[in-house]
């Protein structure tokens, strides 16, 4: 059967395009705003003479807000509906994005960060739940690959817009807030198509973290490696005697890998009933690739080729992990598990930079590679143990 209009989410046979267009386009508009906002806010604080430590502390509010928002999102969606909750989240995130321009006192940026990233976390959770609910099992990986690709392009467009607009005046803030408000249009159009959560989740929120551990652990590793890798790779590259422009291009290669590998990996996951072997293989590939970084550090071309594939493997953990989640659960349980999924991602984004940064201090520049390889290795070990000893269990 097809997805019922304003009905309870379940397995569908055909791609439900109105829902998918609404969810994908709305969250991609938010991705543009986040990609624009992160460098914009850091540059403005730098101009104001705020120390790097305090800038980092303010930025860390994103992860804290996500961890707070994740457990309450499904409760709000159950009480008020998926589409109305998303509309309110759009409004809050747009107003807080614009609020940064008017907030002259630094302390005001902490509640603004909390409001902005808490609201965008709600949008991510409910968009991904909506996409999973509207995707047929046989094509779920393909659909999630499209979602991840478009979202990656949105994130990439943000810094490009920033490079064109600069950090002066209200214009970049208006563009960011405007991009977020545009997300309300497809949500409003497809509001009657959004899944309904008639029942409360059967388990406490934290139980969902451990209900499908192969998926939640995958997104924790993704968050840790993405946040830690992107923030600290320039330091690793410059210390390895690459120029700043060469380091930036290497980061770009990682981003390109992120974009081009999502749909192929999604299609591959659709052909595999059990997604866990693919997740384990990507983690193992990430482990081997990371351990090769110190070996290839003197050859920019080989390093760029490695990071192209490495970027695809890292981001594939998110796409395939989300597909695995959708293949295991439906309805309110899927919504709650999606919240747990994003919660684990947020924890990873907080833990990753701390662990990788400490590893560099302790083991020198190669500590960057060793710490990331450690994350990948632990996940590959977890996935392997569960495959060998727990059979069909998640």
TrEMBL record:
Bilayer topology term: Multi-pass membrane protein
Keywords: Cell membrane, Membrane, Transmembrane, Transmembrane helix, Transport
Domain Major facilitator superfamily (MFS) profile: from-to ranges: 19-394
Matches recorded under Pfam families: MFS_1
CDD domains: MFS_YcaD_like
Protein localization: Cell membrane
Transmembrane regions listed in the UniProt entry: 20-44, 50-70, 82-102, 143-164, 170-189, 210-236, 248-267, 279-297, 303-322, 334-356, 368-389
Name of this chain's protein: MFS family permease
Taxonomic lineage: Bacteria, Pseudomonadati, Pseudomonadota, Alphaproteobacteria, Hyphomicrobiales
């Amino acid at each position: 059967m097809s997805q019922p209009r304003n009905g309870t989410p379940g397995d569908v046979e055909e791609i439900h395009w109105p829902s998918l267009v609404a969810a994908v386009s709305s969250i991609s508009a938010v991705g543009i705003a986040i990609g624009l906002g992160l460098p914009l806010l850091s540059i403005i604080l730098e101009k104001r003479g705020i120390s790097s430590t305090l800038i980092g502390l303010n930025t860390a509010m994103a992860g804290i807000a996500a961890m707070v928002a994740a457990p309450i999102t499904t409760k709000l969606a159950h009480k008020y509906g998926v589409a109305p909750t998303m509309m309110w989240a759009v409004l809050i995130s747009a107003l807080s994005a614009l609020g940064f321009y008017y907030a002259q006192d630094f302390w005001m940026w902490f509640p603004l960060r909390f409001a902005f990233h808490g609201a965008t976390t709600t949008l991510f959770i409910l968009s991904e739940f909506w996409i999973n609910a509207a995707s047929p099992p046989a094509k779920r990986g393909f659909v999630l690959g499209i979602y991840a690709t478009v979202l990656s392009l949105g994130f990439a467009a943000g810094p490009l817009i920033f490079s064109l607009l600069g950090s002066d005046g209200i214009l970049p803030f208006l563009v960011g807030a405007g991009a977020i408000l545009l997300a309300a249009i497809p949500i409003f159009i497809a509001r009657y198509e959004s899944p309904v959560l008639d029942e409360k989740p059967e388990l406490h929120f934290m139980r969902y973290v451990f209900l499908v551990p192969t998926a939640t652990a995958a997104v924790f590793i993704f968050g840790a490696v993405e946040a830690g890798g992107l923030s600290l790779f320039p330091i690793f590259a410059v210390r390895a005697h690459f120029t700043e422009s060469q380091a930036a291009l290497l980061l770009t290669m990682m981003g390109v890998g992120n974009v081009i590998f999502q749909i192929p990996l999604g299609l591959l996951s659709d052909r595999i009933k059990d997604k866990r072997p693919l997740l384990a293989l990507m983690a193992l590939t990430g482990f081997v690739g990371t351990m090769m970084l110190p070996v290839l550090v003197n050859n920019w071309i080989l390093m760029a080729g490695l990071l192209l594939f490495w970027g695809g493997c890292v981001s594939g953990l998110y796409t395939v992990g989300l597909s695995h989640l959708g293949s295991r659960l439906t309805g309110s349980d899927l919504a709650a598990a999606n919240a747990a999924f994003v919660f684990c991602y947020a924890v990873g984004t907080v833990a990753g930079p701390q662990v990788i940064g400490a590893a560099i201090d302790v083991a020198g520049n190669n500590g960057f590679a060793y710490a990331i390889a450690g994350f990948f290795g632990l996940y590959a070990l977890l996935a392997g143990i569960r495959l060998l000893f727990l059979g069909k269990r998640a």
